[in-house]
Design goal:
The protein is an all-alpha fold. It is built from three helices and no strands. The longest helix is centred in the C-terminal third of the chain and has 40 residues. The model has no long low-confidence stretch (mean pLDDT 86).
Length: 87
């Protein structure tokens, strides 16, 4: 369950347009924390840090895809508006 929450956080950060630098710094600090701190569950090491870091990476990829899709849709709508104004 925890990995789902950690996977959705980067998606949300992309959705609210959090600055790239701040998002990446948070990801690096969070991953370093997962690697350095003791495990939270019975998975133990190295499975738990690998799962958490993998979940964050998956969330970052999904968030990037969502952000790109939103940007393309916005550009497409703007192009349609410009074409309507010129017609």
């Amino acid at each position: 369950m925890g990995i789902l929450v950690w996977s959705l956080m980067p998606v949300y950060w992309h959705h609210i347009a959090l600055h790239t630098f701040h998002r990446l710094v948070y990801l690096v600090v969070t991953c370093a924390g997962f690697i350095a701190l003791p495990p939270w569950s019975e998975l133990g090491r190295p499975a738990e840090p690998a799962c958490m870091v993998g979940g964050l990476a998956l969330g970052e990829v999904l968030g990037h895809a969502l952000e790109l899709s939103m940007r393309k849709a916005h550009l497409h709508n703007k192009e349609i508006d410009v074409q309507r104004q010129h017609a």
